[in-house]
Amino acid sequence: MKFMVMSNPRPERPSDVRGRQTSFWDWLEPLKANRTVEAVYVKTGRGAILVFEVDDHETLHRLMTEWADCVPAELTVYPLLDDPAHQEKIARKG
What we know:
By secondary structure, the chain is α+β, with helices and mostly antiparallel strands. The chain has helices spanning 18-33, 57-70, 85-93, and strands spanning 2-9, 37-42, 48-53, 73-80.
């Protein structure tokens, strides 16, 4: 199951959360290495967008909780389809 998750960190001074931000990158590295995280994008200003590939919703929930432990933020989840042609097939049945 593929999900895009976007973070909107709490409005704190960046210097107040610098140590926690470092823990985020430490947490992220093994997830990138094992392909649980397929893509990482840093938003201009603050926040990040990650694309997760997980087996179930419980795994996604655990990862989002771990992320929020590193950098407290509002997390928005977008379920993704792996097959872009799927929507075209639906449209053409029409």
